[in-house]
Amino acid sequence: MAEFIQILILGVVLGGVIALMGAGQSLIFGVMRIVNLAHPALIIVGAYIAYWGYTLWGIDPIVMLPVSTLAMAGIGLVIYKLVFEKEAKSARYSEMTVLLAVALAMIIEGFLGGVFTNTQRVTSPEYATDAFFVADVFIPKGQLYAGIVSLLIIAGLSLFLKYSRLGYAIRATTQNREAAELLGVNVKLVCAISFAIGIGLAGAAGALVSFVFSFFPAKQWEWIAMLMSVVVLGGMGSILGTVIGAVLLSVIAAFVGTWIGSTWSTMTFFLALFVILLWRPQGLFGERPEMV
User: Fold this and answer.
1) 28, 228 in Cβ contact below 8 A?
2) Which domain holds residue 112?
3) CA-based angle 229:271:269, to the nearest 5?
4) Beta-carbon neighbour count of residue 269 at 10 Å?
5) What is the pLDDT of residues 107-127, one digit of tens each?
6) What is the pLDDT at residue 135?
7) Angle between helix 39-57 and helix 61-79 axes, rounded to 10 deg
């Protein structure tokens, strides 16, 4: 019983971090229908920001989180203006964004590899290797802190979307872009801000990832399937669905990794993505696409 509880706790706290990793990607798709496969690469950029803050100046990665978030939000705004905004009115915009995002991911990986090499790195504050013990169960402090901070950020995002004036505009654009525009919403501005927020969330996730996982530029290819599986399971564009999908798949992967083998843990996300697309492509909270 203790082993079951142990695996469950590890899966849940890690699921919170994965939820934040996918939240920005889900928001961007919900508002603009951009399939941002470059999101994991941008998370790694955020991880490097936190890593060098800790390495050079001894700043805790959680303290570096606002810096990483703001820096990546600024980078996101530039990327949107240069890469994604021009083709926004195209009928095949979503399909085009897949190719643009893959190209962007490869450019980012090449740049990071050239500057930082492909050496695995990890930020190592004291709590990253410490744990709380409750009877026979231990809870890693690093994963626990990262999971709690991740869920707090997602809760803050949900409150912002639900109660702020800009949040109303973002939700209106998500539901019906043309209707929102007719009602006076500056859709172009909303899209730019939403993209910046989504990439800012990638920066926040990167700061937390820096002491939860080891990372290097090519790590993004492993994370693409993981993030796509949780976002698709929850329903593309659904923040709540992303959280539920992340926790559910993280718990399943934790049990698979313990009982079958660690090699199969990552395979859980690949298999889940395959099954979801076959069985329920709209996800748990998404809407079934209309046949035309």
Assistant:
1) no
2) 16-219
3) 40
4) 24
5) 999 999 999 888 899 999 999
6) 80
7) 140
